[in-house]
Design a protein that fits this description.
The chain is α+β, with helices and mostly antiparallel strands. It is built from 3 helices and 4 strands; from the N terminus they run αααββββ.
Length: 148
């Protein structure tokens, strides 16, 4: 998931306060597990076994504003120099719509999803098809196509 949108962007601030997510909080990715047992373990240095798991953990990284994880899991050919977090934006829910390939036995995969958010209190969503590839044996985010 990238933080590029087809609409004009307001100015952004790096390092805005993230929502309070504790290890015992439900994981923001939507799976029925705590943050510590789900995406938190990947943010702490673990590796995703599938591209869907990486997609979910990257979404959770946007929720908790973990720029280091986002950059670490972004392919070096498409990785930006930094990740900016919009202080008016709050990610609220992830829907996985389709996954193609991306298992532990594949080298590529895609995840189509809708990420719901509020922007200065106004609800909206991002519909994207993300492409993932293996880089040095690990899944990384490569690119995206915005569906809507």
């Amino acid at each position: 998931m990238s933080r590029r949108t087809p609409r004009p962007r307001r100015s952004t601030v790096t390092g805005a306060p993230a929502p309070r997510i504790t290890p015992e909080s439900p994981c923001p990715c939507g799976l029925p597990a705590t943050y510590a047992d789900c995406c938190g373990r990947l943010h702490a240095g673990g590796n995703a076994l599938t591209c869907e798991a990486l997609m979910r953990s990257r979404y959770a990284a946007f929720v908790v504003q973990d720029a280091a994880y986002l950059l670490r899991t972004w392919h070096p050919d498409t990785r930006p120099p930094a990740v900016d977090f919009d202080p008016g934006m709050r990610w609220v829910r992830l829907e996985i719509l389709e996954t193609t390939e991306g298992s532990p036995f594949h080298a590529t995969g895609t995840v189509t999803f809708r990420a719901h958010y509020t922007d200065d209190g106004r609800p909206d969503s991002l519909h994207e098809k993300s492409r993932f590839v293996r880089h040095d044996g690990d899944w990384v985010y490569a690119a995206a196509v915005f569906v809507e």
